[in-house]
Fold:
Amino acid sequence: MLCYNKPYEVICQAMRAIWVGLGLAGVLLSAAGISQPRSFIIVAIDAGHGGDDTGGIGIDNLIEKDIVLQIAHVIAIESVNSPKIKIVLTRSADQYLAPGERLARARGAQAFLSLHLNFSHDPRVRGIAAFVPTNAPQRTRALADALRAHLISVTKAPDLGTQTAPLWLRRLNIPAVQLSLGFITNPEEARKLAQLAHQKRIAQAILAVLEESF
Ligand SMILES: [Zn+2]
Structure:
């Protein structure tokens, strides 16, 4: 885990210490002949955009690249409590990454979730959607549907369905889903998306589905 993003550096360093601690505990348990819990499922969380690529800009100057990075960090932090899911982040700082770099950073993961927000010229438009690559396998669609359904149930956002798009995620040979977590041009959703409590709800919903799906 790289820790080069100032606002999250302390959290990031703490998480790295926890992972090192877990690894060390595992080695000690093995040495003592005590069986370890089953191995982790590694899931890559990809905060969309970054650097000069801001993504959408919404109400109160909320910037997509910043909000999705915050949510990615909250997912990583919440995952420390998960007995099963280990999160890797494709980016932990405000930097531009080409798709190839995002793929490289996800190497070894068993699933890939790309986080995005949506925007519209109509401020009334709101809701959560999942996107899967064209011709995605059934297990990818199932994961997208499960994630979307659970996110809808905890956020009460309108359900915009699972949609198909020619995404670069098709280059991954693991389940890869793009989540659109709300509209930053809708005043109500924008306000929520900036709140840590809402970000935690989203993170916990995603982790709960990942734990059930693998
Ligand atoms: Zn986006």
